[in-house]
């Protein structure tokens, strides 16, 4: 399981990790992308929907980063990935 979360939301991260441990599951944490992150590169992106804010785009990029990380995992011991919000209550 890969968790993507903001650095200033440590309590949410701990909440999710504790829940997963109850089920014997472990998670890897990756740093979320924000509108102020160097990885927030939307220069080639066409905003077809004017309702999408930079924060919306950052969330989408963070989820895509989690998918990319899961696919390109070098350990070879992950056959699946679950991506969800860290506020999910199991």
In short:
The protein is an alpha+beta fold.
SSE pattern, N- to C-terminal: EHEH
Main sheet characteristics: 2 strands, parallel
Task: Count up the helices.
Answer: 2
Cα end-to-end separation: 14 Å
Share of β-strand residues: 5-15%
Proportion in helices? 25-40%
**Widest sheet, order of strands:** 1-2
The whole-number mean of residue pLDDT values reads 77
- Structural class, from secondary structure content? alpha+beta
The total count of strands amounts to: 2
Poorly predicted sequence stretches spanning 5 or more consecutive residues: none
Number of domains: 1
**What global shape is seen?**
globular
What Rg, in angstroms, do the CA atoms define? 14 Å
Describe the structure.
This protein is an alpha+beta fold. It has one domain (2-71). The chain is built from 2 helices and 2 strands. The chain has a two-stranded parallel ribbon. The longest helix has 18 residues, at 54-71. The protein is globular. The protein starts with a strand and ends in a 19-residue tail after the last helix. The relative contact order is 0.22. The mean pLDDT is 77.
């Amino acid at each position: 399981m890969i968790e993507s979360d903001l650095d200033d939301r440590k309590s949410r991260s701990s909440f999710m990790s504790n829940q997963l441990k109850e089920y014997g599951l472990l998670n890897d944490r990756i740093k979320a992308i924000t509108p102020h992150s160097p990885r927030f590169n939307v220069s080639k992106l066409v905003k077809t929907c004017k309702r999408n804010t930079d924060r919306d785009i950052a969330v989408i990029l963070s989820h895509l980063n989690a998918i990319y990380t899961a696919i390109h995992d070098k350990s070879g011991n992950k056959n699946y990935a679950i991506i969800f919000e860290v506020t999910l209550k199991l």
